[in-house]
Small ribosomal subunit protein uS7 domain-containing protein (Escallonia herrerae), 98 residues
Amino acid sequence: MSRRGTAEEKTAKSDQFIIQQKTETNPLSVLRQAIRGVTPNIAVKARRVGGSTHQVPIEIGSTQGKALAIRWLLATSRKRLGQNMAFKLSSYIINNNI
């Protein structure tokens, strides 16, 4: 039995209405389009040939490309000034027309 009391139940607010208010389109399609626009097709990998190291381009799969795209979107959104993460991400996507 806890002496502090019981915790309040919190309801999650939907963040997708932020994009919908600004663009008047489906927020999920805007997010998918942003991820598609940032997804890379190739990456460079270090390969050792003889005594030197070369950067060799390799093709990456769709799942790894999407993971990189989401990671890049979140990283650049975190650097923006704003109130919360939903506001930062939505403003980044809308301002850059990704």
Observations:
- DSSP finds four helices and two strands in the chain.
